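A student in our group prepared the protein record below, which I am reviewing. Thanks in advance; the entry in question is below.
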Amino acid sequence: ISPATVCEFLYRIVHYQQATSVVELGTSAGITTLYLSKNLSSLVTTFEGHSVLSDIALTNFESFKTKNIKLIQGNIDTTLPDFLQSPAKINFVLMDANHRYEPTIRYFQLLSRRMAEKGIIVIDDINHSKEMARAWKELRHHDLVYGSVDLYRCGILFFDPALNRQHYTWAL
């Protein structure tokens, strides 16, 4: 579960961006999902592979009477490609699942095809391991990424072609 300050930060990005389509990989207990759904004009589609965590998240969503969250249960390797068959564009993605190089790259490649022109992908735990640091380094130089910010805990990738391919590291 992300700390409240990180969840609030993610909500503020979604709100500022006026994102109508939000995708979260890795629902866990659904706390971050609830923050992402605070923007009532957004539809948040969240993916969780662990059935016990899915049940906890669903209970949390029901407790808060959310109407704009869709939880997709099952292995993300199967459920994400099925979901992405829709041609709809995605404004915001939080990737917080399967913290390894290969799945991170694969999920990014799938999602990047559906990103809106000014879309944003946030990847959590970019310094969790050498694999994740390698994935982050590679993804921030992807052709569709026009800017990135390394916040150490997470990284933000911008799909806005109006940016000048700048990559920032925020050192606290």
In short: Helices lie at 4-17, 31-36, 51-63, 76-83, 101-112, 130-139. Residues 27 and 33 are 7 Å apart (CA to CA). The longest strand covers residues 115-124. DSSP finds six helices and eight strands in the chain.
